[in-house]
Structure formats: structure tokens, C-alpha cells
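As a warm-up, study this chain.
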Amino acid sequence: MKKTITIIGSGFSALAASCYLAKEGFEVTILEKNPTVGGRARQLVKDGFTFDIGPTWYWMPDVFEKFFADFNKKPSDYYHLDKLNPAYEVYFNDLDSIQIPDNLPEILNIFEKEEKGSSIHLESFLDNAKHNYDVAIKDLVYRPGISITELITPVTIKKVNQFFSTIRTSVRKKIKNNRLQQIMEFPVLFLGAKPSNTPSFYSFMNYADFGLGTWHPKGGMYEVVKAMVSLAVELGVTIKTNQNVEKINVENGVVKSIISNGETIFSDAVLSGADYHHTETLLEEKYRGYSEKYWNSKIFAPSSLLFYVGFDKKIENVSHHTLFFDTEFDVHAKDIYDDPKWPEKPLFYASFPSKTDASVAPNNKEAGIFLIPIAPGIEDTAEIREKYFNNIIDRFETLTNQKVSDSIIFKESYCVNDFVKDYNSYKGNAYGLANILTQTAFLRPKIISKKVKNLFFTGQLTVPGPGVPPSIISGKIVSDLIIKQFSNK
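Now compare it with the structure written out below.
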């Protein structure tokens, strides 16, 4: 008789896990709280415009390829990828921008023009970053975070100093140009932490950036969700939406069932891809592995204030991905991590997918996504959202030398309160736990419940961490553990 697995949530990690488990013969049912699947990776479709509500960057294409290859598939079986050139553009406070090309020789030329000799340092930095990427992505990140011994290999022992120095130290040791420093420190923001707190081993993110490039799935990141859903259904996974899981029932320390929309659903195992903290509140307190004090002591990755804007004209002087570093990062970071409050002059990011993909906006119009990183848990009101929209649009117009505010057809916003309401996200965080040294690998919340047998967790609050590729990897890790546990019975 098939073993039954109930999965809470339908984000990337949950979808990945469902595919692996179904392939191994488990009877898998996904219960999604919202009307559509994808977790944080949902879509907003309005007036002929299509926006990715959540992730907008497609990095580490090899992780996606590896996932689909495990099922004898390829990403191209489901969606079309374009490599972006430029990969992205960065504006600074001198009303000037730098475009990052899609190949290393041109990137080296740009660095050399900015700072003589910097291209030599960048090449050396990236050689080490590529080696770190090979060690991390091909080995370490696929480990379950059970013990420190997972990190101790003949290769990592030689790199131990890189776990106790920081990205900022590594970058600034040889490269002195502030603009180049900011470009090199930018990729670790995907890990949800400051460059000054992120171990230099994580330079592998720079290889993901400069070495592997930035890609765009035609139609947006939601095409990846649709691909994974298609694969899951093909493998026999049942997906149910509008399912509000109210309780996880445990008997004698073993998970027995869940209650969703008032209905009791029995299961041999439960896997939660939902917010880890929220999932534990569905258990009696004695079965929770982590206390409120524990969660409150953790350093979380930022939340976000997002705007989805339809423009009635094409926007000039921007790329598909455009970063605005016209203010001091350290000041903004302090307002996120050290003294949580709304920043006075926030850095922000803008995405214009219609620059690459005509399918996401009507002809001669532009789809714009704007993101401000903010501290989780801070006050979120309509008045605050409007204030910050005006702030960044004013700066955007100045920096890009154009008027856009009078070309806005509509705008929608998304912030802390929405992350809580839609995803039960702890303090409304957007990216999970920051990947700092004290919150990496075996120091993150465990994939296997510490107190309940046959209860498992996956996603950005456990290993390996924040981001779409790590979430897919997390689904692989937890499915391997579940398969192993049940095969031993």
C-alpha cells in the first residue's frame, strides 16, 4: 500500500519535494492556502499587464537543469529562457550608471575602465568564487543540515578561513573603487544578509552573477511554477488550493493527520513548505521544536515594499533589471538589521520585464516592478506605502532623466501586512533567515522535526537558505530524507 504524504504549501521547495516523492511511489497531496499555486511566486495580471509578485531573478540555471534532469526532462520542455544582456544596470549617486554585460571579458573591461588593475583582482576573485560554487552547489548545499560534520571535507578544511572572513573584507582588500565594490557586494543580498556579515565563502554568488549570468523565462518566473506543477501532476501529485490548514494532529509523538478547512486528513507523514514558525503554531506547544524566544533572536532577511506599475509608454534609460544605489547602503542596512525602522533614503530595485518580454505588457507600454528592502515587522500603512512610492519615483525620474509619474495607468502595492496575510510569514519577512555564519547549514532550523516523528520541513527557513534555487534544493534534500526513512520500515 502506498505511503501518503500531505504537503502544506506549494512554493518551489514544496513542489520540488512533491515531484521527488511521487516519483518514488508516495501518494502526495499538496494543500495550498491561496487560490493559486506557487507560494510567494505568484502572478498579478491586470489590464493586459503581467507581473511576478515574488521572485524576478533567474540565477543558477544549472540548479533548474539538475532538477528537471532528475525526471529526464529539461527546462526547455516547459519554458523558453533568454540570457539578459545587459544582465542588469546599476545607478549611482552621480547620475551615472554601469551596465553589466552577459560575458566575463566585457565585464573585465568595464572594471578596468573604472579602476586600473581591478580586472586582474576580479579574475582572481572569480577563480576562487567558481571553485567555491563547485564545492557549494555540487555538494554542500545538498546536505541536510543535521551535523557540523557535513561541512568538514578535505576541500572545506582548506577553505576554513573563508568562513571566518567576510565578503566585504574579500572584495575591498584589492578593489578600492566604491562603485565596483557595491557591484561585487550586491549578489550576497540574495542571501538576505549584509556583505559585512556574510562569510567570504559565499563569493560563489559572484560566480553565479558574472559566470553563469542572468536569465529570463518568457512569461516571467511564474512559468517555472507552471512547469513544476505540470511535472508534479504528470507524476500523480494531487494539488488542492484554498486550503487553510488549521491544525497538525499528533498522537504519542507521531504525526497522524491535519485539519484543513475543518476536514481531518490522515497521512503517514506531513511536510510543511509553509512558514516554519507558523507551522509549529499548528502543533500543541509541547511538540514545537523552537520557542518564540528562539525565533525572536534570529536575524531575518528583509521584508519588502513592492509596487507593480503599469505605464502607458516605454520607459527609457533602464534595463530589464535596474538597481539604484544612489544612497548609502550601510545606512539603509542599519535600518533593516540593527535599528529596525523605515529608512530615510532607501536603496531600491526596479524590474521592467517588458524590456525583454513583449508578452507581459500591451504594445508600447511598460510593466514596472519596484522593490524597497525593509526590516521585517515594522509598521505598514497605506500612507507609508504612498510616501515611499513618491520618494523612489522622484529619484527614479532624476536619475534616469525622464518624467514617468504622469504616465502611470495603475499601481498595486505589497508589503509586510500582505506577507503575513498571504503566507503567514514570520514578521512579514520576504526571504526567510539571513545566511550568516551563525545561521548556516546545521545551525538553521532542522528539516526533521525535533519532537514529532514523520513531520518534516522545507523551504527558506531551513537548509540551504533563501532564494529560488536553494528552495528547489531544499525540496530535494527533504524528499531524500523522507524516502530514506520510509524505505527503512
